[in-house]
Design a protein that fits this description.
The structure holds 3 protein chains of 3 kinds.
Chain A (H helix, E strand, L loop, with lengths): L9 H23 L4 E2 L14 E2 L1 E6 L4 H15 L2 E6 L2 H10 L4 E4 L5 H6 L4 E16 L8 E2 L1 H9 L8 H4 L13 E5 L4 H13 L1 H6 L12 E3 L1 H11 L3 E6 H6 L6 E3 L5 E2 L3 H13 L21 E9 L5 H16 L15 H12 L2 E2 L2 E2 L4
Parallel strand pairs in A: 3-4, 3-5, 7-11, 8-9, 8-10
Antiparallel strand pairs in A: 1-2, 5-13, 6-10, 6-13, 11-12, 14-15
Chain B lengths: L1 H51 L9 E2 L4 E2 L2 H32 L2 H16 L2 H28 L18 H26 L2 H9 L4 H30 L2 H6 L17 H8 L6 H33 L13
Antiparallel strand pairs in B: 1-2
Chain C lengths: L14 H6 L3 H4 L4 H47 L2 H5 L13 H32 L4 H15 L2 H16 L4 H26 L2 H9 L4 H12 L1 H16 L26 H9 L4 H30 L7
Helix pairs in contact in C: 3-13, 5-8, 5-11, 5-12, 6-8, 7-8, 8-11, 9-10, 11-13, 12-13
The chains are: A alpha/beta, B mainly alpha, C mainly alpha.
Chain lengths: 377, 325, 317
């Protein structure tokens, strides 16, 4: 006796497993592929104890050096095949994620405070990479580059006391520039930012009113203004808003053809932000850097120094948890400190002075795995 | 044959309860997940809850550097943008729903309904993109100056329309949200209106009422709870929207009257600052904002669905209308 | 049909009509002048309000056309082969594309399906077949509705605490978990409703043949409802594909190709967001192209789902 026919069409039965495979296919592919560690066979004749190399690293942090870092990671990937995935979420994010150990290295222009260092699960090193300039950029229809801003005018604008572009405090230093009577739209960072840290550090140094009312930090209580996310967000907002003024790293302004203001430095000279003036700002600091390399170079002395400049750091643990990743990381850091500096000038960052490079090298050599340094020579 | 039958019965006896319990466990995973989300948020927010207490919701200073956290600017921003969105989207959504339910001929009704529902499917980030490059410049150059000139000088309400005009701000946020919740309100209201018994309309028309009088006098009063539910459902969606609002709100935590001013919402501050909360209290404060947002949205959604179900009899209207955020 | 409609028509005149002067006036026609004036006013009001209502519908559609049209126009101009096949270039250099972001979105959505569909369909099967009136069923339905209303950023917070922190790493897995949670309520409710539509005669036929309950569900009811279940899954996928907020701190983003589920992964909405707020004009153009791809994907899924849902007919015995 035959079994009765099933009450559904046979074609539907094949749909379910097919659909399941279609959904699972890419996922299985993803799960099988892409292991992060491939053993590197040591060259013949060397000891067989050479550690394996990781092929991917994850980093996060400052947007300040992101144009340069993205160039570095691109070049490094073509040279060695190592993919370094970096997300520019701001210096605050870099500090947080490295503290949580959800990334392999962090990046920050604001050196970590003692409290933040104490909160980390292990000792963290600050490896300086380049020096960058924080520029004041603006978008005023009809106004070209080279607007001259004194410290008093700048502090007044960001305090909300100078509200129109033709205010006398701006106009008296810019005769004949045709300043309109439009409102000033201040743009600042909405996220935790090392760029903000450098900028507010400068404003606190030159304006007692700023220092008492706002102070310095990666994230402050701004008296006025719109918030933009990252250096990109501030530059984007300034670009979109006529009458806007904001502070960004030099590369962001230049790459987007935004005009840049000329500032008066401590010596009273008017200085444009360039690689030379940025280098001059760091010249004095190199000799007197503390042992952990955390330093501020705003309002630097010297006639050619640009007043708002800062070092930017990569944050790494001295004790690495993974041998392969640690080795890849120190190799990259070494490359960045030597070969990577060559790319800095084109993107308008100042390469590190020689003494600072030496001190950074010593820091890199102190990175260990289970007590043994990962970089010998 | 007898043995085959017995064997089939035996496997059935074992497999049936196994299957039923498997399915039951999977079903129970849904409420378990909801509880887990609430519990995880409450646990992570505990440091801030313990430290600040209820004053958290009333304090206006958000200063991570000095460890002073107050959620009022974000609550204010969320409420203002959502209220603005409701004021704009409520009448328009209801009008579109009336058109779709009562007036449109069959072919037009299907086409327009589908179009309106497609509007709900567009992801939030794309509305944000359009907001940055189309809406904000339009507001800054045309709409806000018009509003300032026409309404600014008025005594009380004029305070809403004064001040520097950036394009981004509360008004931009409210407008984008209005565009995003109009399809929700329209589609759910349409279902509610269609659920009103046809005898109501026939009775009015038999008395010689015009089409509009039928709608206003017979259909809308019966459908009113459901329409209120639809509007509250739209509110629930507006409260939780993140990306589109983050991109046009101006990111400035402040409590000011002017709609032209930049502001901040609860969802936006979490999106912007979560990855960089550098110490536990900061993280806990952000999670506490997330918890408040969750509770407010839940209450609003539950109330809305109860109202809608009473009219549509439990049939689930327009499931696909909670779009991406 | 019970309810207010059962009221006698001859005595009940709704307040709205009373205000308009109908009912009373209808019974006794007054002098021609007064009646004509009232009637003309009513007709004017009628025309005006209907025009307003039509205008509201037109406004809704008009906004859709504005947003979609702008996306299509801007995106089509920037969409090219390089965009679809290359990864992002370093900051400031023109060119590059979002190929890894498109692939990343597909991987994340597939992962969400893998994690969310079994639970959703299982829960829907329970609600539709086993527990139509039980207390657990009411709780599950309520929870599914609650979950629909949970803001997606809150789900991202949960996935961060659940997956990222223990793993000590942002990952595609965390993003997949977040998307699965977002997809869950839609799939559950749609599956339940579709199973309600399957005719009882199918189940009865199975029972009459001595088929065990579980086999009736898995081999008879669910396959005949498969089109509807797929519709629900497609709607859920359309929603999940557009989500950005929960991916911000789970999937995190990636500049390179990545197939490892334990690593961060790029996603189309994330990349659009990052490019949109930047100052680089080339990135703006790429953001529009990405938006076109994303909205095309989402709308295609939504339209397919509705077409398939409309044509669904459970198999007749």
């Amino acid at each position: 006796m035959s079994t009765p026919p099933l009450p559904y069409r046979l074609t539907r039965r094949t749909f379910l497993p097919a659909a399941g495979l279609a959904a699972a296919g890419p996922v299985l592919l993803a799960a099988c592929g892409g292991s992060t560690t491939t053993p590197v066979s040591p060259p013949a004749g060397t000891s067989p104890a050479a550690p394996a190399q990781a092929t991917t690293l994850t980093g996060a942090g400052a947007t300040f050096p992101y144009p340069l870092y993205s160039k570095w990671f691109d070049v490094y990937q073509q040279k060695t095949g190592v993919k370094i995935n970096y997300q520019s979420i701001g210096s605050g994010g870099g500090i947080q994620q490295i503290t949580q150990r959800t990334v392999d290295f962090g990046a920050s222009d604001a050196p970590m405070t003692d409290e933040q260092l104490a909160a980390a699960p292990g000792p963290l090193l600050h490896i300086p990479t380049v020096i960058g300039a924080v520029v004041v950029t603006y978008n005023v229809p009809g106004l070209g580059p080279g607007l001259k801003l004194t410290p008093e005018a700048l502090a007044g604008i960001f305090l909300g006391e100078v509200q129109k572009w033709n205010d006398p405090r701006i106009a008296q230093n810019n005769p004949g520039m045709g300043l309109p009577a439009t409102d000033i739209a201040v743009v600042h960072r909405s996220d935790g930012s090392g760029t903000t840290n450098i900028f507010t550090d400068y404003l606190s140094a030159v304006s007692a009113a700023w220092k008492s009312r706002v102070g310095k930090g990666t994230s402050v209580d701004w008296p006025v203004g719109l918030g933009g996310k990252g250096n990109e967000g501030v530059a984007g907002q300034v670009q979109q808003t006529p009458g806007a003024i904001g502070y960004v790293e030099l590369a962001y302004a230049v790459q987007n053809k935004l005009p840049v203001a000329t500032l008066k430095n401590q010596a009273g000279e008017l200085v444009d932000p360039t690689v030379e003036s940025t280098t001059a700002a760091a010249a004095g600091a190199a000799a007197s850097m503390p042992d952990d390399l955390r330093v501020s170079i705003v309002n630097a002395p010297g006639p050619r120094s640009y007043p708002i400049a800062g070092f930017t750091y990569l944050l790494v643990y001295r004790e690495q948890a993974d041998a392969a990743k640690g080795k890849t990381l120190v190799d990259f850091l070494w490359w960045a400190l030597h070969d990577g500096e060559a790319f800095a000038r084109d993107l308008l960052y100042a390469p590190l002075p020689a003494e600072v490079v030496r001190k950074a090298e010593a820091k890199i050599k102190s990175i260990t795995f289970q007590g043994k340094p990962l970089r010998a020579g | 044959m007898q043995r085959v039958w017995q064997r089939r019965q035996a496997t059935g006896r074992l497999a049936d309860p196994v299957f039923e319990w498997t399915v039951r466990v999977l079903a129970a995973a849904v409420p378990a997940l909801v509880l887990a989300i609430g519990a995880t948020l409450a646990k992570d927010a505990w440091p801030a809850l313990a430290r600040f207490g209820p004053a958290f919701l009333a304090a206006t200073t958000w200063d991570p550097v000095h460890q002073r956290f107050g959620a009022l600017p974000f609550l204010y921003g969320t409420l203002v943008t959502s209220a603005l969105a409701l004021v704009l989207a409520g009448p328009i959504g209801l009008g579109a729903a009336i058109f779709l339910a009562e007036l449109a001929p069959g072919w037009l009704r299907g086409l327009t309904s589908s179009l309106v529902e497609l509007l709900a499917a567009i992801p939030s980030v794309i509305y944000g993109l359009w907001g940055i490059f189309v809406l904000a410049p339009l507001l800054r150059s045309v709409i806000e100056p018009l509003l300032a000139a026409a309404l600014g000088p008025l005594p009380l309400i004029g305070a809403l329309f004064r001040g520097p005009m950036y394009g981004v701000g509360f008004l931009a946020g409210g407008l984008i949200l209005a565009i995003m919740i109009v399809p929700t309100i329209a589609a759910v209201s349409r279902d509610v209106l269609r659920a009103v018994p046809v005898e109501q309309r026939e009775a009015m028309l038999a008395l010689g009422a015009t089409r509009w009088e039928t709608i206003w006098g017979a259909v809308l009063p019966v459908a009113r709870p459901g329409i209120v539910g639809a509007v509250i459902l739209g509110l629930g969606r507006a409260l939780g929207e993140t990306m589109a609002v983050t991109m046009v709100i101006g990111n400035r935590p402040q409590v000011v009257a002017s709609l032209f001013a930049p502001g901040y919402t609860m969802a936006a501050v979490i999106a912007n600052e979560f990855t960089e909360a550098t110490y536990d209290l900061y993280l806990a404060a952000l999670v506490e904002i997330g918890l408040v947002l969750l509770l407010v949205t839940l209450v609003v959604n539950v109330v809305a669905r109860l109202l809608v179900w009473r009219i549509t009899g439990g049939r689930h209207a327009s499931l696909g209308l909670q779009g991406g955020g | 049909m019970a309810g207010p409609a059962a009221v006698s028509v001859s005595t009940y005149v709704p307040a709205g009509l009373q205000r308009a002067g109908v009912g009373g006036r209808f019974q006794k026609p007054g002098p021609r002048g007064r009646r004509a004036a009232g009637y003309r006013r009513r007709r004017l009001t009628n025309a005006l309000m209907l025009a307003l209502v039509g205008a509201a519908a037109l406004l809704c559609v008009g906004v859709l056309v504005a947003v979609l049209g702008y996306t299509v126009v801007q995106g089509a101009g920037a969409l090219n082969l390089a965009f679809l096949t290359q990864t992002p270039k370093p900051v400031g250099e023109p060119g590059g594309g979002m190929a890894n972001a498109i692939a990343g979105t597909l991987v994340l959505v597939a992962l969400g399906c893998l994690l969310g569909l079994p639970v959703g369909i299982g829960a829907g099967v329970y609600l539709g077949e086993y527990g139509r009136t039980s207390r657990l069923a009411t709780l599950v339905r309520f929870a599914a509705d609650v979950l629909t209303g949970v803001p997606s950023i809150t789900i991202g917070l949960f996935a961060y605490a659940l997956v990222v922190l223990p793993m000590r790493h942002f990952s595609a897995l965390a993003g997949g978990v977040a998307l699965a949670i977002i997809m869950l309520p839609t799939v559950t409710r749609t599956t339940e409703e579709i199973l309600h539509l399957v005719p009882e005669s199918l189940r009865e036929a199975g029972l009459a043949l001595g088929v065990p309950r579980w086999k009736i569900v898995t081999w008879i009811t669910v396959p005949s409802a498969l089109t509807g279940i797929t519709t629900g899954a497609m709607l859920a996928v359309a929603r999940a594909a557009g989500e950005t907020a929960p991916l911000l701190f789970t999937a995190f983003g990636n500049r390179f190709w990545s197939w490892d589920l334990r690593q961060p992964i790029a996603a189309l909405p994330l990349q659009i967001f990052a490019y949109a707020i930047s100052p680089y004009r080339d990135w703006h153009r790429q953001a529009w192209a990405g938006a076109l791809v994303l909205v095309g994907l989402v709308l295609l899924l939504s339209i397919l789902a509705r077409v398939a849902g409309a044509r669904f007919r459970p198999a007749e015995p």
